[in-house]
Amino acid sequence: MVVLTDMEYRALEHLEQRERHLRRGVTLQRENDRVGEMFVLRSGRMMSSVLLDDGSRQILRIHSAGDLLAVSNLIYDNAPETITALSDCTVAPFERAALSALLVAHPRLAALILVYNQIERAALTDRLAALGRTSAKARVAAILIEMRNRARMLDKSVGDSFVLGLTQEEIGDATGLTAVHVNRMLRQLEDEGLIAREAGRVRFRDERALARSSNFVDRYEKLDLGWLPESRG
Amino acid sequence: MVVLTDMEYRALEHLEQRERHLRRGVTLQRENDRVGEMFVLRSGRMMSSVLLDDGSRQILRIHSAGDLLAVSNLIYDNAPETITALSDCTVAPFERAALSALLVAHPRLAALILVYNQIERAALTDRLAALGRTSAKARVAAILIEMRNRARMLDKSVGDSFVLGLTQEEIGDATGLTAVHVNRMLRQLEDEGLIAREAGRVRFRDERALARSSNFVDRYEKLDLGWLPESRG
DNA sequence: CGCGGGTTTGAGCCTACTCAACAGATGTGG
DNA sequence: CCACATCTGTTGAGTAGGCTCAAACCCGCG
Question: Which nucleotide minimizes the distance between its C1' and the CA of A182?
Answer without folding.
Answer: D18
